Automatic annotation (TrEMBL):
Pfam name, any one: DUF5947
InterPro entries for the chain: DUF5947
Protein name per its UniProtKB record: DUF5947 family protein
């Protein structure tokens, strides 16, 4: 074998290992998952887990073992403007998640990840009475996603995995103190690509 052939094989091998490292796997059984794959909310860790379809059926919502995992739904619903100012959260890019224990959390993106606040539950109940779709949010796994930054009026009911994708996007694109020139166009594109689905 020539030196060129050995070098080419080494480069291909390194490329194959890098591609395998980039492949997502199920966080419960380690099987490879497709780009579009289900997610489970781990109630014990308070995190969303990437899973394969069989594990999403086997472990979700009281399947095998304790009811530790909840299936993250796929529903997206665009809402007319919602007056979230009554919730006392002073940021324009935020999502609100009602929790199983009755609390409501608000989270907004930052260069370091998610910032979190607890929202007054009574204020949330008043808002949900005024906007009936909010009363139907599935606790822990669905959120009200809001973007009023730069004159936009975007209000959506989305699965929480969409919210975490938005946080990762802001963290990846943020530059300097004010975000730089890439973050806000990327956020606008994120919202522009949201589509309603049931």
């Amino acid at each position: 074998m020539t030196a060129d052939g050995a070098l080419a094989r080494l480069i291909r091998s390194a490329a194959d290992r890098a591609a395998e490292a980039d492949t997502e796997v199920c966080e419960l059984c380690a099987a490879r998952v497709a780009e579009e794959h289900p997610h489970l909310y781990d109630t014990g860790a308070g995190q969303v887990r990437c899973v394969c379809r069989p594990c999403s059926v086997l472990f979700a919502d009281g399947g095998v073992g304790e009811a530790r995992y909840r299936l993250v739904p796929r529903r997206r619903l665009r809402l007319p403007p919602v007056d979230t100012g009554v919730l006392g959260v002073p940021v324009g890019l935020v999502f609100f998640v009602p929790r199983s224990d009755g609390r409501v959390t608000a989270q907004g993106p930052s260069p370091a990840g998610a910032m979190a606040w607890e929202v007054d539950a009574a204020a949330w109940q008043r808002l949900a009475a005024a906007v009936p779709q909010l009363a139907g949010l599935t606790p822990d796994v669905e959120a009200l996603l809001v973007n009023t930054v730069r004159g936009l009026e975007e209000h959506w009911i989305v699965p929480v995995d969409d919210c975490y994708r938005m946080i990762a996007l802001v963290r990846r694109e943020w530059r300097g103190l004010s975000g730089g020139g890439r973050v806000w166009p990327a956020v606008e594109q994120f919202f522009g690509e949201l589509t309603e689905r049931s």
